Structure formats: C-alpha cells, structure tokens
Amino acid sequence: MRRPVTVALAAALFASTLTTMSAAADLSPADFVDPLIGSAGDGNTYPGATAPFGMLAWSPTSTRGDQTSTGAANGYQYDTTRLRGFSLTHVNGAGCNPGAAGDVPILPFAGDVTSSPTDDTTDAVYASNFSHADEAATPGRYRLGLQNGVTTDFAASERTAIGTLAYPEGKPASLLFRTSNSLNGSEDAETHIDPANRTVTGSVLTGAFCGRRANGGVNNRKSYYRLYFTARFDQPVTGAGTWKDATLQPGGLDQTGGEGYATGKDRAGRGSGGYVTFAPGSKVTMRIAISYVSLEGAERNLRAEQPAKSTVDSVAAKTKQVWNTELSRVQVNGGTAGQRIVFTTALYHSLQQPSLVSDVDGQYLGMDRKTHRVEPGQDAQYSNFSGWDQYRAQVQLLALLEPRVAGNFAQSLFNYAKQNDGVWDRWVHVNGATHVMTGDPSAATIATFYAMGVRNFDYRGAFDSLYRQATVPRPEGLQDGGCPGQCVGQRPNLAQYLVSHYAPNDVCHCWGGAAETLEDAVADSAIGHFAELLDRPREAAELRTRGAYWRNVFNPETGYTQARNLDGSWVTPFDPASDRGFAQGSAAAYTWMVPQDVSGLADAMGGKATAVTRLDAFFHDANGNWQLKGGGPLKYDPTNEPDIHAPWLYNELGQPWKTQETVRQLVNSVYTTGPSGLPGNDDLGTMSAWYVFAALGIYPRTPGTGELLLSSPLFPSAVVRPAAGAPIRITTSGSGKYVADVRRDRRPQAGWKLDASFLRTGGTLDFRLSETPTAWGT
C-alpha cells in the first residue's frame, strides 16, 4: 500500500531543507500531526483513527504470540508488527500493560475459518504481520496494508467509524469479530450475525483496568461497563459462523461467552466471537458504531453521525476539519519542521481526552450501573480521568483551550461521584471507579477548573461534595483492597490523618504515607483556594492550613520528605533513592512536590541558596552535565509526574534563568519526532500538555489557581485562541533561551508570575530574549 505524504514523511522532506515553515503555508494544522509519536518505548500512545474527545478509536491490537496479551500497553507498540485485529476503543498513554479498553478486535482474514480463533492461543493462524511502510496515520484516519493481502482504510467520527476492506483476488474473504477479547479479558460477550441484513451486532462485558498488575490483584478483575456495537456492510454476506472456546460452529449466528480476567494459561483458549465471509476479491465498506448504553444507542449513533451517503473520504475530511479547529486553538509560527510536528502532535495528544461516553441522545451509563441523561445545561458526559497524572498540566490546558468541554467534564465527574455514594474516584475509566494511584486529584482538578474561569457546572455542589470527601471519614478508608496501586479508600484512614496531620505509613491503608501526605496537601490547598473564591472563609482557612501538612513529612535531619510511623518516628532505614513510602517515585523526586509552598520548602531545606544547589544537582551529574533522561532515582525523571513541575521551581527560588535553560533543554532533547518522541507514558495527554505549555513559555503554577509561571518561548510567535475567551498573543525578539525582558500588553512585566486575571482578559506577552543569563525576574 503506497503511503500518502503525511506528517511523518513531511518531516523528513522539510527538516533537511527548511529552517522555518513559511514555505509550508498551504498545510493545515492536522498535517503537522504524527500519531505515531509516542508509540515506541514507554509512550503507550496509539496511532489509530479518532476524533477530538472521541468515544471510538479504530486502532490495532498487536500480539507477540500470546492471545491474552498484546506485548504493549493499550494495544500497540511500534516494534510489534503483528496484529490480531483492529479494536474499537483505546486509551492514550496509560502506564500499565495491558492498560485498558481494546474492545472487540476485528480481524480481516484472507482465508477460511476452519478452527476456533480462540483455540489459536499463540495467534499463529488468526493474525497478520504488517510493515510500517504500509501504514499511514493522520488525525481521524488510519490506513494499513496487512501481509495477508487485505488493505484497510478507516475514518472515525465521535462514536462511529467507516472503512474499506479490500480483499485479495483468489482467496477467501473473512472478517472475524473477537468479541470477548478485550485487553483485560471479559466476563461475558455476545455476538449476533444477520446475513440477510448484512449486519453483525454484539456486546462485551468488561473492565478490569490494569487487571493483571500485581499491586491491584483480584480486586481489579471486575466488570464495570458493557460496550455495544453494530456493524453494517455494503456487500452480501456469503457465509457466517461462531465459536466458543475451542469449538467452531460453521453456520452459527449467535454465540455468548467471556474469557475471564486472568492471563496466560489461566485464560488461554476461552472466549467467543463470530465471523462473516464475502466473495473473494471483495471491497467491503463497513460502518460501525458503539454505545455504552444499548444496542439501540449504537444504532442511533450510527444514523446520526453517518448519513446514508457517507464515505471514508467524507468522514475523514469532516473529522480532519474538526481536528483543525481544535489544533488551531494554538497557532505557532516559525521554528523547524520537527519542532512544529512535535508541538502539534503534543497538542493532538492533549485533546484526545476526556472521552465521550454519552450517546447522541444524551444517555449514558452511570457509576451506579443505571442509565442516566446528562444534566440540564450539560452537553455530554465524559470520562477517562487519569487524575493523578492530569491534574498537573492536562486539565489546565483543557480549561484554557476548551473551557466548555472542561465544564462538561467537571459535571461528568460530579455526576459519577453522586452515583458512587459521594466518592470521587482517582482514575475513572468509562463508568468504573478503578481507584488507581494516590491522593485526591479530583479536588485539585475541579478547583483548578473554577480558578481558570470554568463555570458551566454545578461548582457549589461539587465543592460541597469534595469538602465532605476531605473531612468525613468513610469505612473503605480502613480497607487494604487493591493496595498498594489501587487502594479503595479515596482519603485513606482520614480519621487518623486529621489527628496526625500526616498519613502514618504503618496504618495509612494507602500507597505510601509520604506520597499520600504530599498529594493530600496539594489537594487541600487547591480546594482551599476554591473555598476562598466561593467566599467560604471558614473552609478556606481550614483547608489552607492543611495544605501545609507537607511539613510533617519533611525530615530536617535528612533534608528529604520521608515516611513516618503512627508513633511519629521516621521510617528507617532511609535512602533518598528508595520509593519506600512513595508511589512511583523516590524520596529525592517527591521532595520537590510542594508547588503550593515553594518558599516554605526552600526554608525547610536551609534557604533558597541551598535549595538551588540541590535542584542543580537534581538536573545535572557531578560534572555539571545535563541528566534529564532518567538518570536514576536521585535525578529528575521526565517520564513520570511527581517531579515534572521541578524545572519551573527556579523561578520562585530567585534564579529564573535556570528555569529558562532547563525547560529549553528538556524541550529540545527529551521530546522529539519519531515513534520514541515521548519521554514516558503520555498518561492521557499529561506529558504532551507539559510540552505545549513549555514551548509557549508558560506553565500552571499551583493546582487550584489560575496563575502562570513564565519561561522563554520556543517559537518566534504564537496565538492561543480559546474556544471561549480572549486570545493570548506571544511574541519573541532577539535570540537565545534566556529572558531579558517581558512586556504584558506593552507594559513591563517584572516578575516570573502572571496572575489569574491574564487568563480571563487575554492580551499580549512580548519576550525579548538573550544568549546569556539575565537578572530579569530576580
């Protein structure tokens, strides 16, 4: 299959000849997106077709010879060039294998189905190799030629996809629906074939986010959503059949059966599905839609989003236009081809979530497993909230660029909390509470939305609910189910926390007492700001005081954040490189995680000069060389969230030029073009959002506020055009990575901080850059 000139090829063509993109003025923003960025290494992105905030994502599910695994988180890994189907749902950059979703892999197969595909436990028969030379990914469209001779070309709308399957001449033409084979397995599945009406319908009952991970155990292997699908073909169905476990039923039209949630031998050979056949050499157009509510909902979605005369080209063009609208919210000028591609792709990844879960009629399945409709004034229900990750950068970018979507998302999370006995879950997938990670990221997220001007949600009701979660202990807070990675208590052992003013490591029922304390202090500080904005002075004072509880896990003897026991003693032996008392990070990394009180942290370390010296050592080796690509547990880790704000701390420590040089070094060396272009898990757009902010020279200062920190912009000029609100124009003059001067609306901007009014009023930021460090902002 001949690849079109897409972004990946454009990069190669332009980068060798252009230093700016003035010659590429005829390209739209979507033409600068390479969906394959982050698909190698630990980026865990997927390359397939999806719309902004879309429900459906048509993308491969790969295999390395184990039917119960993909060899990759979230279904796709660039170096795995064998697939067992194209799945209908995916999550961008979740950090565990197998990840989540990957529902209903559909395999075009050039051959007769002579045995049960589920019995093919090593994917030796019912799978196909492919070459990246036959792969083309662009926003909203994905094309792939399989080594078995079938070529595929699919485009996606929000809840549907349409595509062509071109089968080779002289070979049987089969299409397999592996209905039960979600990434994490399934409790049940059903497949129904109607040859006369050229349709296949069905559903899968699944969930089990990261269900095979050791630190969640059997607590995670549970169902929480059913995905329904309907597929229609434009060519006659010449044959059909079904299978369950090892039994093939040629001619069968209906089948049920799940796989379970185990892996390997415990699950191999289990499951059900069905297949249809077409005439050899057929070129089949398939239209498919999904719903989390009902089969009728999927059919309504298909009718609404794919008019009768829709084609792959027309749907692809419409979705590309929608992507161009979203990507045009931040327009950058100048820079190299590679920089434009990295930036626009980061913006693309940032705006894939949250994901729609409501149908076109507003119905959705709630966390109580009942059908609901969106609230009055709410446009849609959204989900896929990777809270521990997203509250640090992605939610701020969403609030800035798409405040109405942010408000709908805030209302969605509140809706789920009301349906979940008042509990705001840390990591919501579809309509399931997964409990993943630590802290109370919902508090930080909702407070941030409000501080950034988002108002289209029940913010008073949300505050009251979040305040109750932060102040009223619940029985599950004393349980260890799912610990350490997915502890069920959202405020673990809150009663003790309110007495100790820290999370005692030996009785916290959490994933590390030190990490829990730091996370809760950030969350409490954030909703304290929220209370202040709502004119709730009593709650504001209480929560702002709790925002300082980080001090109770800072050990002045070691100079690091350290876990403590219930009796007040420090957990020993202590090693700053250890993760004892922490979640996915070391004491050395977590010690910097006090964005709400940087000056206080510096004082605890012995003053700003001492803090700067330690921060220097965090980013450099003993010889002063940069150490920015994961140099061990004592160094900065750009692949995970606890320390991603650390480069910006120099601003508040009195040496802003070091923020400028550190951020620029990260932008230029850690984020690149190509499949390995992301430093680590994209974590539902978090790492990508970090890059977008960094390249613009602005960054959110503290969760729960609308303040921004400044650095040096990467591009000569940029315009941010929110979907609602005033534009922000950023320009640079001079060269270099250091800031010599900044003017806000033509007036001198003396400090490194923009107050929240800037987001409300918009305006201009004019940077004058220098080749050498300056005293600006000190």
UniProtKB/TrEMBL annotation:
Chain ranges passing through the membrane: none
Domain Glycosyl hydrolase family: from-to ranges: 297-770
Signal peptide start-end: 1-24
Keywords from the named record: Glycosidase, Hydrolase, Signal
Enzyme Commission number, as recorded: 3.2.1.-
Listed NCBIfam families: aman2_put
Protein name: GH92 family glycosyl hydrolase
An example molecular function term from Gene Ontology annotations: hydrolase activity, acting on glycosyl bonds
Domain Glycosyl hydrolase family 92 N-terminal: start-end pairs: 32-291
Pfam families named in the record: Glyco_hydro_92 (PF07971), Glyco_hydro_92N (PF17678)
